[in-house]
Design goal:
2 strands, 75% helix, Farnesyl Diphosphate Synthase, mainly alpha, 326 residues
Length: 326
Amino acid sequence: MSTISSFEKIFDLEMRRFFKIKKKYFLGLGEDGSRLLSVVADFISNSGKLFRPALFYFAFTSHNRNISLAKKQCLIFEFIHSFWLIHDDLIDQAELRRGKQTVHKKYNLATAVLGGNLALMLADEIFYGMQPSSKLQKIYDSFKQEVLIGQYLDSIGSTNIQTVMELKTARYSFVRPVEIGLQMAGVDGKTVAYWKKLMHRIGMTFQLKDDLLGVFGDVKKIGKSADSDLIEGKNTLLIQLFEETAPPRDREEFSKRFKKSGLNKKDCEYLKSLLIKNNIPKEIQTKISNEIGKLIKDDAFKKKTKLSLLVEEILCKIGDMSDLKY
């Protein structure tokens, strides 16, 4: 059994336990109000990757045997992620998430806004309920604020692509979950710094793959639109590389449609064809493969801890290009 699969069972049991307790409280506030909790519960149950809570869990349990604390605190990361995804889908006006209707599409705008807010409140309730140190509080607050700024920069089409990648993905999805887990477990500063540096590299590589999926993902496998990044006019490394290397005529043709309102399926296919013509997806794939080849040789993988096994599994998923279609 894979590390992530073994974690999924732990996570599901703990999440069900948590929702059972919270539902009693919400029913006391009114039966209608408890439906909002069900919206969040249904969203979380819809087969997310769970690697953020898993990274925290195994970072903690690789150094501390307080399993009950790890099980409860790992829920934080999926609640925060649910908050971001529900609101991100609303911002992007996306219709699908994990192969199902997005919350605002299935219900309405108010339910999406309030459901996302509730997920964030539940994360805070769990975190602050353990009376964290001031140091941990600062890391946790940074964790939330960094991704907020990353999301904002992405939404306004910032050309500072590296900063967006770092804030929105590397720190949020990889660095901070591991850092919080290690800090909570009482690990020394040198070890924390070592893992932060490694997870940052993995996070940046993950974002490269995510950028490919945002344009060339196989819809049946990724469970959402593969035209969204083009329709939204997102500045990703794919676009940057194209603008730096493509001939003037292709750049001119690309600019006639990219970031223009009313982009349709035919327009998206044409933009994709220009990227393919100039070998952009192949170059990004090569960058990903080369970086994974370097990362997997790191000393962290010589010690077969649960954390290193999980990270190795994540790297394999990043390097698997079977979910791309072009």
